[in-house]
Design goal:
Low-confidence stretches: none
CATH topology of the largest domain: 2-enoyl-CoA Hydratase, Chain A, domain 1
Distance between the termini: 60 Å
Largest sheet: 8 strands, mixed
Number of strands: 17
Number of domains: 3
Strand content: 15-25%
CATH architecture of the largest domain: Alpha-Beta Complex
Number of helices: 20
Radius of gyration: 26 Å
Mean pLDDT: 91
CATH class of the largest domain: Alpha Beta
Structural class: alpha/beta
Helix content: 25-40%
């Protein structure tokens, strides 16, 4: 028995060394940690329970007869983050470049299945050169098995991918199927085809970071949701994100002990919106003042900046925040911002996060490029997401709410529970200039003094339509509120809506305009 225990301990010790000390040194030289070092950063000390430590690849595969690495390039198991249970897997680049194999797939899929059965989040720490070539089509099939688990877990348990190294080819679709992707600057990248293939096929010259680095996917593509300066920062970000999320879709998000006065008012909000509706202001100031101090965790902060989405707290309760950003493109809805909003709204609805929408948008973006790019289809995603959502929904029209964008941005018709407006709200089919040009074209053409008559008509239109009062008269706005009282109004409203019960018609699933 002693010999058997000694053998087991030796095998475990070998597994901890991954691909050997020289490979570990190479990993450190690149500014990267090993799989086990990353898990130590992420998990509460002493909570990790490893599974599949001794699993190894099929040695009959091409060129693999003399190689045997316990664990086969991925560390899987369970642990705790701030006392809450999580499932984790961390690819080990020191073993065959972290290449994805049949055994890796079995280990990761098993962890994901256990996570779904246990109702706990799953976090993947990714660092892999892609499919293991020596296994041929079996490694491709292994990805297929993983994709199925990603899809089955979607909307059931939170899934977070932390990209800490390369991710290429078919491998990118697993993180793309998860809820959030965190990328580490300078050491992580994602792409379907690498620079060499692109150069050979299209003649384009591009390096790894420009093609698929953290900046490329946080700013340009929107594939990634967060960027971290290093692996420690990435792990801290994951912990912060998890603090807003429930363990699964049958639980409520965790409340923290309230630390901010629910009745706090900020008089600066009463004067924040400029008198000139063409002048911008920073919607982040509204978010900072209304929600619990320092609680806003912005998602997709660098992508489609004409919209803001993120997680925050109201009196300690987590909520999802959606807002237009007048500082960028006047807060207009375009293709990218529509995708950004729709995806976030659906995530919040899946995991029982009430949605607060702050509206200031002049409409959908005009132009040939937007029309040909599918703004109709993409814009419809926002409508679909809000209509489908059954969580508590509250909207606040801060300033502009024009045309189809007014409807889409959580209007009463989108099954929104409560719709508020500030006195500065401008709710109409279109802006005064456009409306006057259409309604009074002939009258202005025939007028002896068209400039004076235009001013009169503009003022009349503004007085009659370009304000929140006519919308309130018709019941489209529930209450016009003082900006400084917005925080207390939202907290009181959510207290009532917390026990809201509603459902959608029975169906297999809808057909979203993806």
């Amino acid at each position: 028995m002693k010999d058997k225990l000694a053998e087991l301990r030796e095998m475990r010790a070998k597994a901890k060394l991954g691909g050997g000390q020289s490979r570990i040194d190479d990993q450190h030289a690149k500014g990267k940690l090993t799989a086990r070092e990353r898990l130590d950063l992420l998990l509460d000390s002493g909570t990790f329970q490893e599974l599949g430590r001794l699993a190894t690849h099929n040695q009959s595969d091409f060129g693999m007869a003399e190689k045997k690495f316990p664990g086969d390039g991925v560390v899987t198991g369970f642990g705790k983050i701030d006392g809450r249970r999580v499932a984790v897997y961390a690819q080990d680049f020191t073993i065959l470049g972290g290449s994805f194999s049949e055994v890796q797939s079995h280990k990761v899929c098993k962890i994901m299945e256990l996570a779904m059965e246990s109702g706990i989040p799953v976090i993947g720490l990714l660092d892999s050169g892609g499919a293991r070539i020596q296994e041929g089509v079996r490694s491709l099939a292994a990805y297929g098995e993983l994709f199925v688990r990603n899809v089955m877990a979607s909307g059931v348990i939170p899934q977070i991918s932390v990209q800490m190294g390369p991710c290429a080819g078919g491998a990118v679709y697993s993180p793309a199927l998860t809820d959030f992707i965190v990328m580490v600057r300078k050491t992580s990248y994602m792409f379907i085809t690498g620079p060499d293939v692109i150069r050979a096929v299209t003649g384009e010259q591009v390096d790894f970071d420009t093609l698929g680095g953290a900046a490329a996917h946080n700013v340009n593509s929107g594939v990634a949701h967060f960027a971290a300066d290093d692996e420690l920062a990435a792990c801290r970000l994951v912990k912060e994100l998890l603090a807003y999320l429930p363990q699964n879709n049958s639980e409520d998000p965790p409340r923290v002990t309230p630390y901010d006065d629910p009745a706090r008012q900020d008089a600066s909000l009463d004067h924040l919106v400029p008198e000139d509706s063409s002048q911008p202001y920073d919607m982040r100031q509204v978010i900072s003042s209304v929600f619990d101090r320092g609680s806003f965790l912005e998602v997709h902060a660098h992508y489609a900046r004409n919209a803001l989405v993120g997680l925050a707290r109201l009196d300690g309760f987590p909520v999802g925040v959606v807002a237009n950003q007048p500082m960028h493109l006047a807060g207009v809805l375009d293709i990218d911002s529509s995708d950004k909003i729709a995806r976030f709204v659906r995530f919040c609805d899946a995991f029982n996060l009430p949605i607060i929408t702050l509206v200031d948008t002049p409409g959908y973006m005009p132009g040939v490029a937007q029309e040909h790019g599918g703004i109709i289809r993409h814009g419809a995603k926002v409508i679909y997401a809000y209509c489908e959502a059954t969580v508590p929904k509250i909207s606040v029209v801060v300033r502009k709410a024009m045309g189809g964008a007014y409807i889409a941005m959580s209007s009463k018709q989108m099954r929104t529970d409560l719709a508020y407006a500030w006195p500065s709200a401008e709710i109409a089919v279109m802006g005064p200039e456009g409306a006057i040009n259409i309604l009074y074209r002939e009258e202005l053409r025939k007028s002896a003094d068209p400039a004076t008559r235009r001013r009169e008509l503009l003022q009349d239109y503004v007085d009659r339509f370009h304000n929140p009062y006519s919308a309130a008269d018709m019941g489209q706005i529930d209450e016009i509120i003082e900006p400084s009282s917005t925080r207390l109004r939202l907290i009181n409203a959510l207290e009532v809506l917390r026990s809201k019960v509603t459902s959608n018609p029975a169906k297999k699933h809808g057909v979203m305009p993806v």
